[in-house]
Specification:
Low-confidence stretches: none
Strand order of the largest sheet: 2-3-4
Largest sheet: 3 strands, antiparallel
Shape: globular
Oligomer: single chain
Order of helices and strands: EEEEHHHE
Structural class: alpha+beta
Length: 96
């Protein structure tokens, strides 16, 4: 499942958005469509569900929507802002 890294903080709107990487202090700005893709994925949708909702939202073919979602996922993963790895639990934080 796709998710943002713990050190990545989203600021997302329908008009666009940005992601703050607290490790580097850098902001990555998103287009409105990339912001929508991230919002759909963060809402817990699978890539396929997100693509279906994205296609409906923008009135495009499902294949194009799936390609757009994959592009956003690949770009943010390549920048180190997102991952498909499972959530890791710190063993020393069990008492919290």
């Amino acid at each position: 499942m796709w998710r943002l890294r713990e050190s990545t903080h989203p600021v997302l709107t329908d008009e666009g958005g940005a992601l703050l990487d607290e490790r580097t202090g850098r902001w990555t700005h998103l287009t409105p469509t990339a912001s929508a893709a991230v919002m759909l994925l963060l809402a817990g949708a699978t890539d396929e569900e997100a693509a279906g909702q994205y296609a409906t939202r923008y009135g495009i073919r499902a294949e194009q929507a799936a390609a757009d979602i994959r592009t956003v996922v690949a770009a943010l993963t390549a920048q180190g802002l997102a991952t498909t790895d499972p959530v890791s639990r710190r063993w020393w934080g069990w008492w919290r």
